[in-house]
Amino acid sequence: MPGGATVLAAATNPDRVEAPVTMKAYLLCVFASFGGIFFGYDSGYMNGVLGMNYFINLYTGLPIPGADATQAQKDAFTLPSWQKSLITSILSAGTFFGAIIAGDLADYFGRRITIVSGCGIFIVGCVLQTASHGLGLLVAGRIVSGFGVGFISAIIILYMSEIAPRKVRGAIVSGYQFCITIGLLLASCVCYATQDRTDTGSYRIPIAIQFAWALILGGGLLLLPESPRWYVKHGKIDQATKALSRVRGQPQDSTYIQEEIAEIIANHEYETELIPSQSYLGSWAACFSGSISNPQSNLRRTLLGISLQMMQQWTGVNFIFYFGTTFFQDLGTISNPFLISLITTLVNVCSTPLSFWTIERYGRRPLLIYGALGMFICEFIVGIMGVAKPGDSSIVKAQISFICIYIFFFASTWGPGAWVCIGEIFPIPIRSRGVGLSTASNWFWNCIIAVITPYMVGTDQGNLGSKVFFVWGSTCVICFIYAYFLVWETKSLTLEQVDRMMEECGSPRKSAGWKPHSTFAAEMGLTQEGKLPVSTHEKIGADHHDVANSAPVPATAV
Predict the structure, then answer these.
(1) 438: in domain
(2) Cα(311)–Cα(325) distance, rounded to whole angstroms?
(3) Cα separations in angstroms, 68 against 64, 195, 416, 518
(4) How far apart are CA 17 and CA 8, in angstroms?
(5) Is residue 164 part of a domain?
(6) In this structure, are residues 352 and 181 in contact, taking their beta carbons and an 8 Å threshold?
(7) Per-residue pLDDT tens digits for 340-371
(8) Residue 137 has pLDDT above 60, yes or no
(9) Phi and psi angles of residue 220, each rounded to the nearest 5 degrees, phi first
(10) Which positions, given as ranges, span the membrane (predicted)?
(11) Which of the four pLDDT bands, split at 50, 70 and 90, describes residue 258?
(12) Closest by CA position to 324, among listed 76, 56, 84, 67
């Protein structure tokens, strides 16, 4: 675009700001969700490994109990709580920092390259873990892998949200959560198959399989286009048009492509013109600028994203997927805890696809509100039964049934819903950092839960047993209240329309009734011929910009 004014076809009708969904566009977006397998598998395989006889023997030196071993000997044959805590939580510590760093890298190098780089870092961590024969190298490998997973988990959500068509964006981003559940299931299957091996293959095989996920995702993304919105932010309108043409399956001169790129440009200029460009630290500070009482301020949006991911972890579901095997072992009434963990993971996988339909049919708010309601009811029931009749095998079976129902509620609501929301609530100037901070919050609380849970339920520590479900039930009550008062309804809106909705609604509880009535292109200088001038955007987009966070600017329909 350098060298003079250029015009793009633009729309005044808010329903004409995006091309129809094609199968090619859908498949391009769906492939990106494959990144969830990293999250799921890397989170899940350690659940099984921590309960393997050979692994416990290798790391503690305790002899494997024979068939004639006493119950006391069997109970003593377990990893110390501090080792479980360290091995599990160190991954989340790495992902926390990786997710924060990824936001800057994604803004500078692009969304796609940042994800591919994460795959490379992840492979290095896998090499270290596979080669480990002791705690030190295993922990080092876990933290390096964590950095890679942090890159991937933060930016894959950003990338999918920016390229997905609005009518199926919720379903496609939900596919990321579905891939997480697939990863958890694969991890459970592999650990179930190797649990009885009496050599290092028992834990090295589950670790080494992760190489495949990195190669598939990294290699595939090299063939996909960069986010058109990233190109617009950097003033590269030609490349943005080409990229959008590929992800929408339409020719570059299509009216749909011209109108959508014009709307993206107009929205970006609207936001960046309100506040002049700032320094690097100033651009980070922009994420926390504005008043907390202003619903559309950057501060409010950032806190919403951070707290939303915190609440997802507070549901307690990772207690089952991280420590389910060892928890069921400690109950002492289950003959095959590996099989029970496999069943709970299978429930997780089968329940998630329901959200593909419900999140677009009913919206984000209802899913999160009623999902939290279902979860806290199930968790209180599990806790009450366990306290009423501890050690009763029939009660344990009933508990497992309600745990599966609880997982169903999570997998079909909060599992995908939290990821969908954080990809939609941030404006372009702070989107990569906002999503990065939100994802870092997920991993921070993931880490906290991984650290404290072994001390809460470990037989050598708190030994809460079933009482731990009163803790998770109470936090789900908080999730219920949170979703009702603070979660916005963003169903069927473009990312640009979400910005306008937050400006005009004033309260998340009113957001479901808001309808788009104008376009940014119309308000940013649409000509009588239906064109949007784009003469200075390359200069504007080359700088780092902020977003206004003071009183909302009134919208003027043209």
Answers:
(1) yes
(2) 24
(3) 11, 20, 46, 76
(4) 13
(5) yes
(6) yes
(7) 878 888 898 899 999 989 998 899 999 999 99
(8) yes
(9) -65, -40
(10) 25-41, 86-106, 113-131, 137-159, 171-195, 207-224, 303-325, 337-356, 368-388, 400-422, 434-457, 469-487
(11) confident
(12) 84
At 167, list the tokens. Answer: 């009518």
Exposed e or buried b per residue across 232-265, where buried means at least 16 C-beta atoms within 10 angstroms of its C-beta: bbbbbbebbbbbbbbbbbbeeebebbbbbbbbbb
Amino acid identity at 373: L
- Biggest CA–CA distance in the chain, Å, is 89
How many domains in the chain? 1
Residues 527 and 533: beta-carbon distance below 8 Å: yes
Structure-block tokens of residue 40: 């799921």
pLDDT digits (tens, 9 = 90+) for 60-109: 888 888 877 777 777 778 888 788 888 888 888 888 999 999 988 998 89
Predicted local distance difference test score (pLDDT) of residue 529: 45
Residue 536: count other Cβ atoms within 10 Å of its Cβ.
Answer: 12
Is residue 520 in some structural domain? Answer: no
Say if CB 536 and CB 308 are below 8 A apart: no
| Residues across the chain | 558
Contact 439, 149 (CB under 8 A): no
Q: Domain holding 145: CATH number?
A: 1.20.1250.20
Q: Is 16 exposed, middle or buried (0-12, 13-18, 19+ CB in 10 A)?
A: middle
The confidence score (pLDDT) of residue 421 equals 93
Give the residue from 305, 304, 275 showing the smallest Cα distance to 100.
305
How sure is the predictor about 163, in pLDDT bands with cuts at 50, 70 and 90?
A: confident
Query: pLDDT category, 376, cuts 50, 70, 90?
Result: very high
What residues make up the domain containing 178? 23-64+76-224+291-509
**Residue 533: strand pairing partners:** 7
- Return the structure tokens found at 192: 């179930």
* Residue 122: HSE in the Cβ half-sphere, 13 Å Cα cutoff: 31
Q: Is the dihedral of CA 503, 163, 161, 22 positive or negative?
A: positive
Helices and strands counted in the chain (H then E): 26, 2
User: What pLDDT shows up at residue 462?
Assistant: 65
Alpha carbon 170 to its chain's center: 13
- 211 falls within a domain: yes
- Beta partners for residue 531, in sequence order: 9
User: What per-residue confidence (pLDDT) applies to 391?
Assistant: 72
